[in-house]
Amino acid sequence: MTDKRLNYWIPKWMSDVINRRVCSKCKKKARSIDVIAIGIRELNTGKSCLYSEHQCSKCSHRSLTLFDKNDKRKTGTLQEMCFTLLESIKNKKRIETARQLTEKMQNDMSDQNVNKFLKFLRNVPTHDEFLRHIGSTLDCGFLNDYEDTD
């Protein structure tokens, strides 16, 4: 997959909040494209919250935007916010993969490439080797999507 800036992966609600902010040093409007980190921070109250760190493109000053559960800009618990963020990333990766596969499928294969692939299929020693050849791996991680393994 191609490298993407961090703002590509964050959900729209998070981008919208960041885009409404301004740099506290030079007053330039913040942009979600300036996000350099996202994570979870512990507050002085002992509670945790989701945050984003962004660097001003004009003066390089770094600022934080905190998304705690009492924030009026969104609803839900910290766990729900993190889950939403991870789901957003997962969905965008799936879309990106599907787009790349669609582009590959649109290219016509020559007879030579088809024959070469068929020869490989006849001679491939293992299923794992076949999966590596087509750019995939045998991943049993899908169980984690449906079952709690704790």
Describe, in plain words, how this protein is organized in 3D.
The chain is of the alpha+beta class. The chain has 2 domains: 1-107, no CATH class; 109-150, no CATH class. The protein is 41% helix and 15% strand. It contains 5 helices and 3 strands. It has helices at residues 6-9, 12-19, 78-106, 111-123, 127-133; strands spanning 35-42, 48-55, 62-67. The chain has a 3-stranded antiparallel β-sheet with strand order 1-2-3. The radius of gyration is 22 Å and the shape is elongated. It starts with 5 loop residues before the first helix and ends in a 17-residue tail after the last helix.
Give the % helix.
40-55%
Number of strands: 3
* Main structural class: alpha+beta
- Inertia-based shape: elongated
> How many domains, in number, for the residues?
2
Mean pLDDT: 77
Task: Figure out the total of helices.
Answer: 5
What's the assembly state of these chains?
single chain
Q: What's the story with the biggest beta sheet?
A: 3 strands, antiparallel
- Helix-strand pattern, N to C? HHEEEHHH
Give the N-to-C terminal Cα separation.
31 Å
The whole-angstrom Rg is: 22 Å
Proportion of β residues?
A: 5-15%
Low-confidence stretches: 141-150
Widest sheet: strand ordering: 1-2-3
Keywords, please?
about 150 residues; 3-stranded antiparallel β-sheet; 2 domains
Topology:
Layout: H1 6-9, H2 12-19, E1 35-42, E2 48-55, E3 62-67, H3 78-106, H4 111-123, H5 127-133
Antiparallel strand pairs: 1-2, 2-3
